[in-house]
Amino acid sequence: MTAPATHASSGTPAASPTPSAAPGTDGAAANRLRPRRSCLAVPGSNPRFLEKAQGLPADQVFLDLEDACAPLAKEGARHTVVDALNKGDWSGKIRVVRVNDWTTHWTYRDVITVVEGAGHNLDCLMLPKVQDAQQIVALDLLLTQIERTMGFEVGRIGIEAQIENARGLVNVDEIAGASPRLETIVFGPADFMASINMKSLVVGQQPPGYGADAYHYILMRILMAARTYDLQAIDGPYLQIRDVDGYREVAARAAALGYDGKWVLHPGQIEASNEIFSPSQEDYDHAELILDAYEYHTSEAGGKKGSAMLGDEMIDEASRKMALVVSGKGRAAGMRRTTAFEAPEA
Question: Which of 29, 130, 233, 263 is the most exposed place for a label (fewest CB within 10 A)?
Answer without folding.
Answer: 29
